[in-house]
């Protein structure tokens, strides 16, 4: 284990940050920062520059203390372990859908029942997300991580008992356990990034955390068709091949559960950024989870993002679930290549995620980047739709890669944009609501697109998604970019991006904390 007191390093903003005066512990009343509560028990402050100035003044008010921020080396181990068990969870989500014809034959069920092995992830998420985000806020990061990795392993072992025809109910129950594990996983990337990483790397860290889930989907597209070839005339051989996949997944997930217990800590010894130092100074007993939810739904930019994120991510879930059916409709017997196309889609998206994360850390252009990626995803899906039936698999590989680069590259953008426009509300709560929206849209899109694909053609299903993504573009364009977290950090750090000089006449002294040039 890496010890924070001996391994902490000063990187960028690390070290002691002298404030203009002592910063007293900040009180949070009914979910609001000081000065925001109404006489009658609390009200939402109006959006806009006045609110930002008031919040900045409250959080960075003069006081004679020293705010010390450092980056812990443990953060890299935390990020790596989380990414790995998130990978395994995503692998278990897609392993049935990419072999829908194989598992339908093995269990003797319909394609719709196999689709439910994917959709159960979406169904479980919606009712459980509020309890899960409450647990994250009330009991912390470590317990949530252990629950996610532990349930992931439990579900994997239960699947090992379903290795016989006629045991579809057991494999559905096992997949439901993995689906519950997902509830404690999907909301963590932005929380891990904010709690453990500094402001110049937080978006990249979030992208890497999301990348683990994407990589799991990619491996889920690639590995199952190789491990479990379609052998309809030899059910025993099919069961043997499935057992290799199930037992291997169970062993890996168990190992990752133990690593989670060793590596994960609640938070580093020192906060990695000033925005985290401000949040950690707030007494936890004064935090209101209910009021935090109300604040988020009163935040119009967040509500717009909530819908647009759900549309884009739900469309990705639907395409991933139905990819096998779309490919084999036009290219019979190409199950392995269907998996490779899915791999291409997700790997390209992983590259897009990292590039977008690095771009956001450098420019902080959250809305512009999100809107551009949204538009390019729409164009990519249109091109994929109208080239799918040309008869050339190489064309599908290329168009699938372009689609994946933008569509899955969008995922971390939504997380980080939400954290920025909702600060100081909990990152886990905003991310959880985004994921809940994605699951709801994913269920609806999968059912409708699957029906259109079966009754008409894959083109009809894809055009249905295109129409919804166009709506998402309009909603994204309407979002007001109010980068609250970045404004707090830029007010106390000497950054190249939008740095505010100490004696700048454009920034009132009450809203910025002067920093020594030694930083």
TrEMBL record:
<dbReference type="InterPro" id="IPR049680">
    <property type="entry name" value="FLVCR1-2_SLC49-like"/>
</dbReference>
<feature type="transmembrane region" description="Helical">
    <location>
        <begin position="244"/>
        <end position="264"/>
    </location>
</feature>
<feature type="transmembrane region" description="Helical">
    <location>
        <begin position="431"/>
        <end position="448"/>
    </location>
</feature>
<dbReference type="Pfam" id="PF07690">
    <property type="entry name" value="MFS_1"/>
</dbReference>
<feature type="transmembrane region" description="Helical">
    <location>
        <begin position="143"/>
        <end position="164"/>
    </location>
</feature>
<keyword id="KW-0325">Glycoprotein</keyword>
<keyword id="KW-0675">Receptor</keyword>
<comment type="function">
    <text>Uniporter that mediates the transport of extracellular choline and ethanolamine into cells, thereby playing a key role in phospholipid biosynthesis. Choline and ethanolamine are the precursors of phosphatidylcholine and phosphatidylethanolamine, respectively, the two most abundant phospholipids. Transport is not coupled with proton transport and is exclusively driven by the choline (or ethanolamine) gradient across the plasma membrane. Also acts as a heme b transporter that mediates heme efflux from the cytoplasm to the extracellular compartment.</text>
</comment>
<keyword id="KW-0813">Transport</keyword>
<dbReference type="GO" id="GO:0005886">
    <property type="term" value="C:plasma membrane"/>
</dbReference>
<feature type="transmembrane region" description="Helical">
    <location>
        <begin position="76"/>
        <end position="96"/>
    </location>
</feature>
<protein>
    <recommendedName>
        <fullName>Choline/ethanolamine transporter FLVCR1</fullName>
    </recommendedName>
</protein>
<dbReference type="InterPro" id="IPR011701">
    <property type="entry name" value="MFS"/>
</dbReference>
<keyword id="KW-1003">Cell membrane</keyword>
<keyword id="KW-0265">Erythrocyte maturation</keyword>
<dbReference type="InterPro" id="IPR020846">
    <property type="entry name" value="MFS_dom"/>
</dbReference>
<feature type="transmembrane region" description="Helical">
    <location>
        <begin position="460"/>
        <end position="479"/>
    </location>
</feature>
<feature type="transmembrane region" description="Helical">
    <location>
        <begin position="116"/>
        <end position="136"/>
    </location>
</feature>
<dbReference type="GO" id="GO:0006783">
    <property type="term" value="P:heme biosynthetic process"/>
</dbReference>
<feature type="domain" description="Major facilitator superfamily (MFS) profile">
    <location>
        <begin position="78"/>
        <end position="484"/>
    </location>
</feature>
<dbReference type="GO" id="GO:0020037">
    <property type="term" value="F:heme binding"/>
</dbReference>
<keyword id="KW-0472">Membrane</keyword>
<feature type="transmembrane region" description="Helical">
    <location>
        <begin position="202"/>
        <end position="224"/>
    </location>
</feature>
<dbReference type="GO" id="GO:0015232">
    <property type="term" value="F:heme transmembrane transporter activity"/>
</dbReference>
<dbReference type="GO" id="GO:0043249">
    <property type="term" value="P:erythrocyte maturation"/>
</dbReference>
<dbReference type="GO" id="GO:0097037">
    <property type="term" value="P:heme export"/>
</dbReference>
<keyword id="KW-1133">Transmembrane helix</keyword>
<dbReference type="GO" id="GO:0006839">
    <property type="term" value="P:mitochondrial transport"/>
</dbReference>
<feature type="region of interest" description="Disordered">
    <location>
        <begin position="1"/>
        <end position="49"/>
    </location>
</feature>
<feature type="compositionally biased region" description="Acidic residues">
    <location>
        <begin position="1"/>
        <end position="14"/>
    </location>
</feature>
<dbReference type="GO" id="GO:0031966">
    <property type="term" value="C:mitochondrial membrane"/>
</dbReference>
<dbReference type="InterPro" id="IPR036259">
    <property type="entry name" value="MFS_trans_sf"/>
</dbReference>
<feature type="transmembrane region" description="Helical">
    <location>
        <begin position="300"/>
        <end position="319"/>
    </location>
</feature>
<feature type="transmembrane region" description="Helical">
    <location>
        <begin position="339"/>
        <end position="359"/>
    </location>
</feature>
<comment type="similarity">
    <text>Belongs to the major facilitator superfamily. Feline leukemia virus subgroup C receptor (TC 2.A.1.28.1) family.</text>
</comment>
<feature type="transmembrane region" description="Helical">
    <location>
        <begin position="394"/>
        <end position="419"/>
    </location>
</feature>
<feature type="transmembrane region" description="Helical">
    <location>
        <begin position="170"/>
        <end position="190"/>
    </location>
</feature>
<keyword id="KW-0812">Transmembrane</keyword>
<feature type="transmembrane region" description="Helical">
    <location>
        <begin position="371"/>
        <end position="388"/>
    </location>
</feature>
<keyword id="KW-0597">Phosphoprotein</keyword>
